[in-house]
Each structure stands twice: as structure tokens, then as C-alpha cells.
Design goal:
30% of the residues lie in helices and 23% in strands. With 246 residues, the protein is of the alpha/beta class. The chain starts with a strand and ends with a helix. The structure holds zinc ion.
Length: 246
């Protein structure tokens, strides 16, 4: 099976469309590590696509906040404004869908999906030291996560935790062959609001048979996504940061 792994779409329809187009024909099923909504201007369009196309989804902190208000007190001003804006616009069906998303970890076909970390859906696993603290807590040899909006792979080997860098600015993809006796904690990066200084949409494809994970980046119609954020009256900061990848 070839899985398209996506995370942190954040209501960015243009980015999701570009990811689906770039990955077309290369996967058999889609899974998502959460944060379908919040920040961007197309929550209902994104949720409709996810409901039609994604096999398994774990909830993200923004999904929870936009659906129920829970955790919104921890958000900064722009994120809070976007959460209220999103809540007001969700259709009753999409609101119910969001509210009922399962909390991770979720096991799919022998691998695991979480939003933040296997121990805490709200935890940020940013660097090797954060990853090191999760040694022994990964529920499966291959685990996908999101939340940080940074594309990265952590390898748990006998020598400790190593890091595979994201796809470089001059590349579109990078394939890693999975070794036995190694555990992998992998962030496919954010579809709709990357924060690793590369504004291109990020995703990954996991081929369970070939035992390979490929990290991808793809450009999308950023200007259209920005224009919609401004037209919607969402904070301008949310449009600006898309161009910075921050
Ligand atoms: Zn997020």
C-alpha cells in the first residue's frame, strides 16, 4: 500500500489542491495527522475533501478549538480570531464531523498517527532532543505526526536519535529507505501553513511494501490563498506568513 500522508492543512484549499495534484497516481489511500482547519479561508471545502478522500484522521488542536472552543484560551490573537471565524462558518455537518474526530494515537495498517506526540496531542516535537525523550514511547516502528508544521524525520537507532533534514529548496522530493531495527517518527510537514522557511506545501508518501518514505514539497497558488484570507477579514498576519513559510 502507498499512503499519502498529510497534516496541518489549515483551511488552505489552494495548497491542498496542489498536493492532491502532485501526488495523483502515486498513492492508494490518504491519512491525515490533524488540523484540517484554522487560519485559512476555506474550512468547508477542505473538510469536504477530507471526508471524501481520507481514510483516517486524528484530530488536531485547531480542529478541537474550532469545533468546541476547547483550548482556544492558549491561542494567540490571530489563531483565536481564526478559530471563532471558522466556527461561525462551518456547516452543521462539518462541525459534527470535526467534533467527532478521534484523538491520537491511531493505528493504521501497522503504523501510527498522532497530532503532537504519542504522549500528548498538544506537544511540539521540534528537534532531536524532543524526539529523544520519546524513546520507548512510539507505539509502532513507523509513526507520523504533525503540529510543528516542520517537515522532518527522526530515526531511532542503537546509536541514538538522528535527524533527516527536510527537502532542500532546490529539490522537490527526498526518499528514505526504512531500515529494520530502526523506529521512525516522521512529520510530513504542513500542507497549508509551513513554518520551516519553505513556503511550498509539504506532504509525504509511505510505501509499506517498498519500505520507503518520500518527503515532498510543491508550490501552490499562494496569492489566491492570501487574497481569500484578506477578503474574509481574517488577520493580515495569516496571509503574510504563508509567503514566508513561518
Ligand atoms: Zn497546525
Amino acid at each position: 500500500m502507498r499512503y499519502l500522508i498529510i497534516s496541518d492543512i489549515h483551511s488552505n484549499w489552494e495548497a491542498l489542491e496542489a498536493v492532491a495534484a502532485k501526488a495523483a497516481g502515486q498513492y492508494d489511500a490518504v491519512v491525515c495527522c490533524g488540523d484540517l482547519v484554522g487560519y485559512g479561508a476555506n474550512p468547508n471545502e477542505v473538510i469536504r475533501w477530507v471526508r471524501e478522500n481520507v481514510r483516517a484522521v486524528v484530530r488536531g488542536n485547531h480542529d478541537k478549538a474550532c469545533a468546541t472552543g476547547e483550548g482556544v484560551e492558549w491561542f494567540n490573537g490571530a489563531a483565536r480570531a481564526a478559530a471563532f471565524w471558522t466556527h461561525e462558518r462551518l456547516t452543521p455537518g462539518n462541525l459534527a464531523y470535526l467534533r467527532n474526530l478521534p484523538k491520537g494515537p491511531l493505528e493504521v495498517d501497522g503504523f501510527c498517527m498522532v497530532h503532537g506526540s504519542p504522549l500528548d496531542e498538544d506537544e511540539y516535537v521540534v528537534n532531536s532532543r524532543d524526539a529523544q525523550e520519546l524513546t520507548g514511547y512510539l507505539p509502532a516502528p513507523v509513526c507520523f505526526f504533525g503540529h510543528t508544521h516542520r517537515q522532518v524525520m527522526f530515526l531511532y537507532t542503537r546509536e541514538g536519535v538522528k535527524q533527516v533534514s527536510p527537502v532542500g529548496a532546490e529539490q522537490d522530493e527526498q526518499t528514505v529507505r526504512l531500515e529494520p531495527d530502526t523506529f521512525y517518527l516522521i512529520n510530513p510537514g504542513s500542507v497549508g501553513q509551513p513554518r520551516d522557511r519553505d513556503p511550498r506545501a509539504a506532504f509525504a508518501i509511505y510505501d509499506t511494501k517498498a519500505r520507503e518514505v518520500t518527503l515532498y514539497r510543491t508550490a501552490y497558488d499562494l496569492k489566491s490563498a492570501q487574497a481569500k484570507i484578506r477578503e474574509a477579514g481574517l488577520p493580515d498576519l495569516l496571509a503574510l506568513r504563508l509567503a514566508e513559510g513561518a
